[in-house]
Amino acid sequence: MEKKCLIISYHFFPSNGVGAKRYNLFSKYFSNKFNTVNILTIKEKYLPEKDETLVYGGEIYRTRYFPRYQDNEKIITKIINRIILRVFPIDRYSAWIIPALVKGIKIVRKNKINTIIVTGPPFSPFLTAYLLSFIFKIDLIIDYQDPWVLADDYDVSWFKRRYTWFFEKLLLKNAKYVIFNTQTALNKYFKQKLKFAIENKSFVIPNPYLCEERAEPLYLEKNKKVIIYAGNFYGNRRLKYIFKPLKHLFNNGELNNKVSIHVFGKIHEEDADLIKELNLSKIITEHKWTNYSLLASYMKGADILYLSQGDDHRDCVPYKLTDYLTIRKPILAVTSFNSATYDLMQEVDCGIAVDMDDTNSIYNALKELLIDERNFSFAGTEKYSLKNTAEYYYKIIIS
Q1: Predicted structure pTM score
Q2: CATH number for the domain including 170?
Q3: Is the bond preceding 14 in cis, omega lying within 30 degrees of 0?
Q4: pLDDT at residue 156 greater than cutoff 60
Q5: Distance in angstroms (rounded) separating the CA atoms of residues 284 and 80
Q6: Banded model confidence at residue 293, pLDDT cuts 50, 70, 90
Q7: Which structural domain range is residue 366 located in?
Q8: Of 103, 125, 240, 381, which sees the most CB atoms within 10 A?
C-alpha cells in the first residue's frame, strides 16, 4: 500500500523556532519517499519570526484559531491567558484542536491519508491526531520532541494533571508507533509506569542535521577567538556559566582579552547583570535575529560554538546541538552529567561537555579550546545526518 502521510505540527516552516526544525527536515526527506506528504499547521501570521531560507517538503495546509495565548502586558490579554490556562483541556494551544480537526478531516478525505504523524510540544495537537485516527481507522505515529509526562509546565492543577495523564495513556495504547528523540526520554517513560503502553512499538530517532549544507565562513572578528551562541535563553540556559572562568583566564594573562562572545538572540537579564558586574561588556555583543543561512556562515567562522542546558530539559538534546553538528566547529556544552546532551557529547567527537556546576572543569575546557586549540575528528556525527535518521524513520513507517 502506498503511504500517504499527514504530519500535524503546530510549529513548521517558515518558523525559525526549534520546534519546527525536526519536521522541516523530515518532511523534506519524506516528500521524496511517499506518494503524499501533507502538513497541517497554523497560519503564518501567528509566527513571531520567519525564515524563508529553511528547507521543507510536502504540501502545507494552514488554519487559524482563537483565542490564542499571547505574551504582552495588556489587561485583556492577561485575562484571556488566565482563562486559557485554567479552562482549556490540554495546554495553552488547545483552541487549535477543533480548527485542526475540521481541516484534518477534509485533508484525510481529499487525499486518502492512511498514516498520521503528530509531534509536540505543544501536546494539544495529539488530541486532534487521535480523533482523526479514530474516526478514519488509520495508523497513528506519535513523535515526542520533549516528553509530555515529564513536562512540569503543563501541571496546572492536580485534576488537570490526572486527566491529561489518562489521555496520554489512551493515546499511547492506540498509537502504532511511539518515537522519542533520545534514549534518556524513552527510559524515563518506562520508569513512569508507561512501559505497558509503548513496549515493542517505541523507537529512538534523534534530531537530524542537514549534512548537505556547507556554509562558507564569515568572520565576525579575525584577530580574536570568537565564541558564538545562537538561540534563546530560557529555563536554566545561560551564558553566565563561562563568565568567571573566562575572567580567570584573563586575569592569569593566558588570553590577553583576545576573545569575543557573539550572541544571536536576546541576552537574559541575569546574564546582563553579571556582565556588568564582571566588566565583560567589551567582549560580548548581542545581535538581532538573522536568517539561518547567514547565521550558519557566522558559526562556520567561529572558534567555539557554545551551548548550555540545565536540568529542566535534560531528557532531550537541544536542537541547537544538532545544528552545530552541521557546522563541524568545536562545541562547548555546559550541561549536567545526567543529561542526554552529555551522553551525545561522549558518543561524538565534536567538542567538550562539562558539568554546569563545576567552574574548574569549565575553566579547563575553555583553556583546551581557546589556548591549546584542541582538534576534533567529528567521528560519529554521521549517525545524526538527515539521510541516516530519516531513512531509519521511513523504514519504521512502512513496516
Answers
A1: 0.90
A2: 3.40.50.2000
A3: yes
A4: no
A5: 38
A6: confident
A7: 225-383
A8: 125
